[in-house]
């Protein structure tokens, strides 16, 4: 599990706890699933995220301690407002909730734009918004940095399958098989996407 995924899990647990104590803080909703049966950025667990605080567009959640009490508030999304891993996790959560353009705005604030997880989520958000050509450039960049990033290969293959390029989707499926076999979630999800697109 990457540092971003670990931080994200911890952020979501803290968010769920805070929300349970203060339901009137803001509207909340359950996060949806990403592509296939797995969710982006979950490390392939497919586990749905807990409910999260939702800020209005252009804002992110900032957690701070005041007199030993953890407080969360919405702050304007600008460069440096949060550490990269927190920006990534919030962008990831927004993408999982179907807020693709908002997710892209938050992900663009991450200073390290060469982080494969960030590139993958940018690709995911573009793909889900119907911009496959743009998404492919992000997936390819993530794979140039980490050729073994099977989640990026899965999402790239799902994009190809949705576009009717089953031949290219099968190439990504073969690459995933080389790296984690036929039993890993990414292989199963892409295989299912190819099968659905072929029918």
Task: Summarize the model shown.
The protein is mainly alpha-helical.
Overall description:
With 199 residues, this protein is mostly helical. The protein has one domain: Tetratricopeptide repeat domain (Serine Threonine Protein Phosphatase 5, Tetratricopeptide repeat, Alpha Horseshoe). Helices cover 55% and strands 10% of the residues. The protein has 8 helices and 4 strands. It has a two-stranded antiparallel sheet with strand order 1-2. A two-stranded antiparallel ribbon has the order 3-4. Helix 5 packs antiparallel against helix 6 and helix 6 runs parallel beside helix 8. It is elongated and about 55 Å long. 41% of the residues are buried. About 22% of the residues have low confidence.
CATH class membership: Mainly Alpha
What is the subunit arrangement here?
Answer: single chain
**Cross-sheet strand order for the largest sheet:** 1-2
Order of helical and strand elements: HEEEEHHHHHHH
Report the strand count: 4
What is the CATH architecture assignment?
Alpha Horseshoe
What does the secondary structure layout of this molecule look like, with pairings?
Elements: H1 3-21, E1 28-29, E2 52-53, E3 59-66, E4 69-76, H2 84-96, H3 100-107, H4 116-128, H5 132-145, H6 150-162, H7 166-180, H8 185-198
Helix pairs in contact: 1-2, 2-3, 2-4, 3-4, 4-5, 4-6, 5-6, 6-7, 6-8, 7-8
Descriptive tags:
199 residues, mainly alpha, Serine Threonine Protein Phosphatase 5, Tetratricopeptide repeat, two-stranded antiparallel ribbon, two-stranded antiparallel sheet, 8 helices, 4 strands, 55% helix, 10% strand, elongated
């Amino acid at each position: 599990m990457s540092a971003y995924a670990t931080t994200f899990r911890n952020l979501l647990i803290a968010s769920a706890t805070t929300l349970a104590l203060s339901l009137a803080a803001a509207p909340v909703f359950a996060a949806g699933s990403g592509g296939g049966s797995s969710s982006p950025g979950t490390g392939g667990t497919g586990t749905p995220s807990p409910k999260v605080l939702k800020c209005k567009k252009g804002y992110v959640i900032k957690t701070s301690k005041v007199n030993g009490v953890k407080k969360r508030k919405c702050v304007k999304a600008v460069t440096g407002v949060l550490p990269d891993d927190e920006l990534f996790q919030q962008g990831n959560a927004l993408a999982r909730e179907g807020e693709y353009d908002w997710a892209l705005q938050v992900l663009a604030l991450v200073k390290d734009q060469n982080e494969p997880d960030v590139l993958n989520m940018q690709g995911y958000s573009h793909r889900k918004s119907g911009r496959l050509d743009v998404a492919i450039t992000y997936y390819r960049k993530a794979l140039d940095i980490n050729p073994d990033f099977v989640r990026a290969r899965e999402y790239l293959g799902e994009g190809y399958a949705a576009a009717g390029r089953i031949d290219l989707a099968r190439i990504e499926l073969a690459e995933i098989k080389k790296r984690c076999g036929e039993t890993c979630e990414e292989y199963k999800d892409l295989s299912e996407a190819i099968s659905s697109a072929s029918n």
